[in-house]
Amino acid sequence: MKLVAEKREISSRLFRFSAPIISILVALFVAGFLLLAAGVNPLQAYLEILQESLGSSYGLSETLVKTTPLIFASLGVSVAFRMQIWNIGAEGQIYMGACGASWVALFSGIENHVLMITAMFLVAFLFGGLWAGVAGLLRARWKVNEVIVTLLMNYIAILGVDYLIYGPWKDPKGFNFPLTAQFSDAARLTEYFDTRLHSGFFLALFCALILYLFMERTVWGYEIKVIGSNPKAARYAGMRTGLAIFAVLFLSGAIAGIAGFSEVAGLQHRLQHGISPGYGYTAIIIAWLAKRSALGVVIVSFLMGVLLVGGDSLQLSWQLPVAFVYAFQGLILFFLLASDFFIQNRLRLIREEHHA
Amino acid sequence: MPDLLQIKHIRKTFPGVIALDDVSLSIAPGEIHTLLGENGAGKSTLMNVLTGLYRPDRGEIRFDDDPVQFDSPRDSLAMGIGMVHQHFMLVPAHSVFENILLALDKVPNFYSRKQFKQLVQNVLDEFELDLDLDTPVWKLSIGAQQWIELIKLLVRDCRLLILDEPTAVLTPQESARLFLVLTRLRDQGKSILFISHKMREVMEISNRVTVLKKGRSLTTLRRGEYDEKLLASLMIGEDQIPEWEKSTNNGEQLVLEIKDLSVRNDRGLADLDNFNMKLYRGQILGIAGVAGNGQKALAEVLTGLREASGGKILAGDRDITNSTAKSSYIAGIAHIPEDRKSIGIAPDMTVDENLIMKSFTSSAFRRWIFQDRAAIRSNAAEKIDQFAIKAGPAGTPVRYLSGGNIQKVIIARELSEKPTVLVALYPTRGLDIGSAEYVHKVVVDGAEEGMSTILISEDLDELLKLSDQIVVMFRGRLVGCVDPRQTSREAIGLLMSGEVQT
């Protein structure tokens, strides 16, 4: 007997939609063993995650705070994924966006709130977009692999921001901590209900709606899908694929850049070290889980927000390292990719004919 | 002497395609056996079965009179079956010696470089080959790289050598040299399976020839039992030519003129080489030729998929060589089953979406920047009805359709643009008779309304039935231009083989 994988002609619709849920459940199961090894009762831990992140208005607001940058970054990543362009550099683009927004906030001297916020937004959009645009240009012109370029540019962005906050932009009154001065009130987003929840969250939802319309309803969204599905057919239909690659990577980076803007203007109110604890990488998992759909991104980002906030509390009450959260995220992606295999293939046992 | 290799009633299917259907042949020791067939006849599939890449659905392979089963290329190599592929399997940055060493198994971890080098050098000396073992492979010519592939098999002491169109990349002088070596190998008792569709080579070198057509082994002939004419007609087929039903039209009004058009491929070789052609209004111009002689490049450059490296494409007096205006002037349909995704469709998108691929920016299908879904749907409904496309429920991705229906989607889309020129590349390959007839009707009807068609096909029946004029391509050049009603299939076959020029 021998086990062989065969390509499915048609993958079952039910299976396609249940696969992300199943892979999360399997990841939960396997992660349970990690928890057991750390001496924690998994059921108790999972319950605590839910309670801490959803059980109180404070918890919920914190979850939404974490959800916000995840939505932006994942939207950015998923736009590129739609065209089979693999932008792994959302992390760096977040830093560039944050850097651009901070630059305006610290040095422009604008006093009008609306004007200031608009300027910060636009510069963050531009910084993130141009940062990813470099990879777009290299890919479109010289077929340089965008995975490598976007990934490596993360380090440049993160260390570049570090340079600024350890050096020229360091707050003189900051006791030598690696952070800039606080932004003026004009450069802060509105906060609600006495919590850290800020208007960036609603901007993220709005952004998801716009992107949904863009991808599903506009002529450009159509073009992106055709290019993603078969670049040769797109070229044959007269589409300018090179330009589209650049434009899509620009857009992808720009939206990730907004995450940086929303973090500094809405939450931190300054530029500081570690402004994103890996949102850009989590975004890749989210975009994949969400099957690149804008609505899906919002839902999955919220789930990841739950996990991050719940994970924080696990650190506090059980002394679990933060690595557990990342391990869990890794497990989800791992099982998701595995489930993709089962969606596209069917396993079959075949009898081996033995010859003498 | 008993046969070294016997293949009996091999059948291999892929989803929707029968690649091999009852193929039998045998190869004796000390024999050069040629496998002759058009592209798509199943030669490559058969090779992949013999080298263990594919497993046949049915049939038997016997080696040394023992039944064998190859699960991977390693199995067949272990038996002593080696193959020189069309695409070389070499590590470009490594030296000639290192590449050859890779082919050997049982090389000890601490091998004696000198000893192994001597081993390889002996093989080189035996066949009087001049190759520097320390040169990195990427510096060598394509011809020299092919020698390395062959030497790899010789140092392994393979008993059966399979060569897949080895002369395709060689100059005539290099080919002559290769034949010399092959003949000597045969005299030493090696068996050689030689794949080709070049008549002259087949005549020169083979002891026996097996003709493969549409996945079946038609017949095996000994030297002396065949001549070029017979092989050509066997390869191309002897089906009855259908009654002529079409009026001939070699119109007056010139719609497309191709002047000295050249296209180079990645290797820098010319896929199209100073190609010249004229197309008149309402004309169906057939292009005959063995696949791989520039037809695909011609179709691709006409439909804007590749850029010309020289020459001109003129529409009337407008130069549209590398212009985007081409896509509204020239439409294309292509059907290449093994490469279904290649140019025609966006496979993951719906039938509706695929039907507007060339006209998605037209005001009929959009309102401002938004797509007009109602219009797109009603357009699809109309086309599905008009062309009798079995499209499944609305929203079905086009890749779930059958080959014939995918082809209809492409035709519906291309014709809706009312093109002046239609380029049809193997438009009926792999289609069932009904769908193929339908495609023919579309082309003929189009011609009556003034559309001109460039029909590129390997199927001579199709060409003879539809074309007003047939031109023959060989190695990217036009080698002949004939009137289909006054020319025999054999004459066209000889032109296709590059033996004669008109």
Q: In terms of per-residue confidence, which ranges of chain A show pLDDT below 50 for 5 or more consecutive residues?
A: none
Overall body shape of chain B: globular
Seen as an oligomer or otherwise, the chain set is: heterodimer
Number of helices of chain B: 16
Round the Cα radius of gyration of chain A to an integer and report it.
22 Å
Number of strands of chain A: 2
The greatest interface between two protein chains, and residues involved on each side, is: A-B, 25 and 32 residues
Annotation, overall tally of beta strands of chain B? 22
Strand order in space, largest sheet of chain B? 6-7-8-3-9-10
Strand portion of chain A = under 5%
Order of helices and strands of chain A: EHHHHHHHHHHHHHE
Percent of residues in helices of chain B: 25-40%
What does this structure look like?
The complex is a heterodimer of chains A (356) and B (502). Chain A has 356 residues and is mainly α. Chain A has a domain of 206 residues. Chain A has 13 helices and 2 strands; from the N terminus they run βαααααααααααααβ. The two termini of chain A are 17 Å apart. The mean pLDDT of chain A is 88. With 502 residues, chain B is an alpha/beta fold. Chain B folds into 2 domains: 232 residues, P-loop containing nucleotide triphosphate hydrolases (Rossmann fold, 3-Layer(aba) Sandwich); 243 residues, Rossmann fold (3-Layer(aba) Sandwich). Chain B contains 16 helices and 22 strands. In chain B, the strands form 5 sheets. Chain B has a 6-stranded mixed beta sheet with strand order 6-7-8-3-9-10, sandwiched between helices. In chain B, helix 3 runs parallel beside helix 5, helix 8 crosses helix 16 and helix 13 packs parallel to helix 14. The longest helix of chain B has 16 residues. Chain B starts with a strand and ends in a 6-residue tail after the last helix. At the A-B interface, helix 8 and helix 9 of A face strand 5 and strand 18 of B.
